[in-house]
Inverse folding.
């Protein structure tokens, strides 16, 4: 019998010995990120069909015996809505998880709500209602309370049941390869590495910025990303998105006043911000190439997107799966713009991509003839 919370190397070694023969490992994490760029891992919850415990990574600096098991390619790792868990494991231990079974994605493939929560899925499949009382707790605080421990263990206790049920249903409809492909893409290490030069694309509101200001936006966003990574501080603490965009569209003579009145947290960084803006001016003068956002779709192309989305919805309803999983709006936009789209890749190509390409070709022909 293992303790509910493992805090010593001896306890961890004994737990991992019992875990070694497991065909699957259920996994969840608790972490904090309010004051850091990188997630701060606080707790690892691990379960198999025979054992379950929380690994206190704050008390245990070395968990290599467990990491060795999580790297084992013959053992399925079960996670619900795995992206953030995978991100924190990669950031903390440079650990990539494969093979992965994401129960949220599996449920979506089977036609359940595309972003179904763990609690809702447990209730739907197992009939158990889980408590949410500790969902916003401080996981850095020690000692952990009994309520925190029970809540954390619940997050892995039912994953095995979900896995067995969902896997059986996926096999019955012949869609296991859908999940395998989705999980392989999700678990790829490059998913969790942010290129500072691409950070501008994630800025809230960047799609509405005039093209002439984009070089500035790209330069300043890259500076902010590098600074945030190096100092391990949230981007918004350095310069919130809205302020970054406004600075790039502002008369340079007003920057000082703006920073002092609107962005007090950035006052000390005024010299660095000005330096970045000057670099942009120099780059433009030297005819440097800057990436631009895709142009907005013309009205007739927006109509095509709408019709293709209707086809996706009809296909999803017929197959009993999630329409957003088959093709989201972004992937349809890219298809209509003639860009690489995930609907023409992997399992989606045969399921929906080929038919969408045929309908788009017909719509394009109709537009040309009219």
């Amino acid at each position: 019998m293992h303790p509910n919370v493992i805090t010593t190397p001896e306890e961890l070694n004994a737990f991992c010995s019992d875990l070694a023969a497991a065909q699957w490992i259920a996994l969840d994490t608790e972490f904090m990120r309010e004051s850091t760029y990188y997630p701060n891992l606080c707790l690892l919850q691990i379960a198999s069909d025979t054992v379950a415990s929380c690994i206190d990574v704050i008390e245990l600096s070395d968990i290599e015996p467990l990491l060795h098991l999580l790297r084992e390619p013959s053992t399925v790792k079960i996670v619900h809505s795995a992206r953030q868990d995978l991100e924190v494991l990669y950031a903390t231990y440079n650990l990539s998880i494969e093979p992965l079974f994401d129960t949220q994605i599996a449920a979506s493939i089977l036609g359940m709500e595309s972003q179904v929560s763990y609690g809702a899925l447990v209730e739907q499949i197992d009939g158990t209602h889980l408590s949410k009382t500790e969902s916003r707790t401080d996981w850095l605080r020690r000692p952990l309370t009994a309520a925190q421990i029970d809540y954390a263990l619940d997050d892995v206790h039912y994953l095995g049941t979900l896995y067995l049920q969902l896997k059986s249903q996926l096999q019955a409809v012949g869609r296991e390869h859908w999940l395998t492909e989705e999980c392989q893409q999700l678990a790829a290490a490059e998913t969790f590495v942010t290129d500072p030069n691409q950070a501008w694309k994630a800025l809230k509101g960047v799609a509405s910025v005039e093209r002439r200001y984009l070089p500035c936006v790209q330069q300043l966003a890259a500076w902010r990303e590098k600074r945030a990574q190096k100092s391990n501080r949230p981007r918004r603490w350095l310069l919130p998105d809205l302020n970054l965009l406004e600075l790039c569209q502002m008369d340079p003579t007003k920057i000082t006043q703006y920073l002092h009145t609107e962005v007090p947290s950035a006052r000390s960084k005024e010299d660095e911000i000005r330096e970045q803006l000057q670099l942009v001016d120099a780059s433009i003068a030297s005819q440097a190439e800057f990436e631009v956002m895709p142009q907005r779709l013309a009205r007739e192309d927006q109509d095509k997107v709408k019709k293709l989305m209707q086809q996706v919805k009809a296909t999803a309803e017929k197959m009993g799966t999630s329409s957003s999983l088959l093709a989201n709006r972004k992937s349809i936009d890219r298809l209509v713009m003639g860009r690489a789209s995930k609907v023409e890749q992997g399992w989606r190509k045969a399921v929906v991509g080929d038919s969408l390409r045929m309908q788009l070709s017909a719509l394009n022909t109709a537009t040309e003839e009219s």
Q: What stands out?
A: The chain has a mean pLDDT of 91. The longest strand covers residues 24-32. Residues 346-369 form the longest helix (24 residues).
